Amino acid sequence: MRSTQKSIDNLSYQIIGAAIEVHKYLGPGLLESIYHKCLAIELETKDIKFASELTIPIDYKGHFLDTQLRCDFLVESQVVVEIKSVSEILPIHHAQIINYLNLLKAPKGILINFNVVNIFHHGQKTFISKYYEILDRE
User: Fold this and answer.
1) Which domain of life is it from (predicted)?
2) CATH value at residue 77
3) Overall pTM surpassing 0.85 (yes/no)
């Protein structure tokens, strides 16, 4: 099945729903690694395919670097999910997910901060890349 903006948006809603479920169960204030493991369980429960701690390849002028750069999740090879458990999302966190989108050629990314009272209103931000813009809407 060919990806469309609509299918990626629907997948994003499922991912955010899974994060909300984890947050509803655990609440804020835990380590990022705990939320990571629980979100993986929640995605598996929903039969959503993902890669966890995916190594991101870096090509510098034809030289492939072993950098140990990793994104938290690449969901259905379409959506980068980066999770945090911090008091404040900083511009460097935005830059991180934008770089991951470009390096992985992924259409969409979601930055989720579990250290908030309400994930839907204050704990998630979505990003789209040029790869999203070229997809069909439907």
Assistant:
1) Bacteria
2) 3.90.320.10
3) yes
